[in-house]
Every structure is written in structure tokens, then in C-alpha cells.
Amino acid sequence: MTALRAFRTVAMAAGAIGGLSGAAYGLLTEQSRRARLVIGVPEAPPPVADGVYLPDGTGPVPDDELARGVAPLCFVVIGDSSAAGVGVDTADQLPGVLLARGLAEEAERPVRLLTVAISGSTTRSLPAQVERALRAGPDLALVIIGANDVTTKMPVHVSARLLGIEVRRLTSAGVGVVVGTCPDLGAIRPIPQPLRSVARSWSLALARMQRGEVERAGAIPVALADLLSPEFLARPADLFSADRFHPNAIGYEAAAAVLLPALCSVAGVWIGGPLPALRTRSAAAEARRPTARAVAWLNRALGRPEPVQP
Length: 310
Description:
The protein is of the alpha/beta class. It has a single domain (43-190, 199-289), classed as 3-Layer(aba) Sandwich (Rossmann fold). 50% of the residues lie in helices and 9% in strands.
């Protein structure tokens, strides 16, 4: 699903699920229309740069350039447009390439990158991607999925359960798995309030449920919403691509920086203790947007009582 359709779907879902009044539903629908006009469409799919990357930063290289007896670490990237790298200009900027090079440097051995992620994918698309990944005999995998589940109205418990099933398929095959949980759609500034708060609430709810399923499946979740939202909210012009929906090269560098430690851990490259517990909410992200006012407006429109603050 492209950004042009995503926000109309969010508004429709908000009306169907929340029972919005006519005025409130009309406002959300109008806001989704305006967001679609502001957000552009990616001109082309992301480049493909699968292959073997060396510890010195070079690659992809042919297999005959590998040192004899040194087997590459097989690394697969699974998921949606954020995993595939929509928004970059060159292959060197792809998140998979950034992570493959980082892994090769840290492991001091070659890393073979295979990207099976497809733009527009939802969690229902994962079985085919995981099947293709398993045929390659991977050592470790990165999964980023969830944004399209929100915009296509998939119930969060269904989405999270399906993710857990596919992650368990990978871990049962001996693959080390890291999952970047659903990003914060509230960081996308072209979505006006209160529609942005609706998208934000659903994406954060999904991320929380994904985290539990991923942990139960024996993998490591990385809270992308918590770790990246403060930067994306503070520097949208620097971190988003021209479509204002997907990250640009700098944005993907920021994502790679928070994903690489977990990947090194599951690959057995970094040993010596568990990774520190990651926060599930960002105080900085909350402080940078008028969420409280928007939520209060939405609650009044729905006739709901004001939430009690803990």
C-alpha cells in the first residue's frame, strides 16, 4: 500500500471501529485527503544490492574473491518498504547493506546479504518471504513489519500473532532473529491532527503486542518507535525522503545504528551479557507533539470519558 491510500484507510477504520460522530468522521476523512495530496509517491523501487560484503567495507563481491575456507555469515532481510529501503538514492544507502557491512566488520568475516522484503507487505505476506529466506539457510534475520498492517485495518492481535508464528519458524530452524517493531506513524508530519494521533495510537499498540510475541518466539525485539521517533520528530527534513513517508539515507543510518547491536548479539559476535532493556515509550517523542490535546478532542468527539492519568 502506498502512502496515498494509507491515510484514507486509517480514517475509515477509525470511523468503523470507534463509532465516530458524523462531524468527527468527516474531519478525519478530509484530513486523510489532504495528507495524500501532500505526501508524494516513490518514483522507483529501491535498488537491489544483495551479495557478499567483506570486513574491509567492500562489496558486494563475487564468491571467487572470498578467502578459501571462510564461509560467509548469511543474513536475510524480511518485511516491508522500510526493510527493503524505499526512499534511498543508491544501493550503498540501503539498510540491508549498512547492516551487512556493520556485521562483517564486527564479526571479521564476510556476510552474505539476501533481501526478500517487498514494499507494501503486511504480516500476511511473511510466510512466503520466510519460506524463501529459509531456503537460503540463513544464520540471522532482520524483520521489519507492521506499518501496512495499521493502514489496512488488520487487528493488532491478529497481526502480532501472525508475526510470532513466522518468527518461531525462523528461530526453530536455528536462525537468530531481530525484529524492528512497528514504527510510530505519528512521526509522519503530513498527517494532521487528530488523524495523526489515531495512526500513532494504533502503531504503538501494535508495537507493544509485537514485542511480546517476538520475545515468546525466542527473538529480540527492537522498539523502533521509541528509539527513532525523537530524532524523526526533531529533524523531519533531515531524516525523511522526498515522499515525507519513508526514511532517507540518514534516516536509515539512524535505524541501522539501533538494530546493529541486537544483530551482533544474536549472531554471537557480541558476547558477555544480555543487551540492556529498551524503553517502550519515548518521553522525548511525547513532549514534541500535541498528542494530549488531540486525544482529548477525539475523546470528546466519541463521547468517551477523559482517561485517568497514572
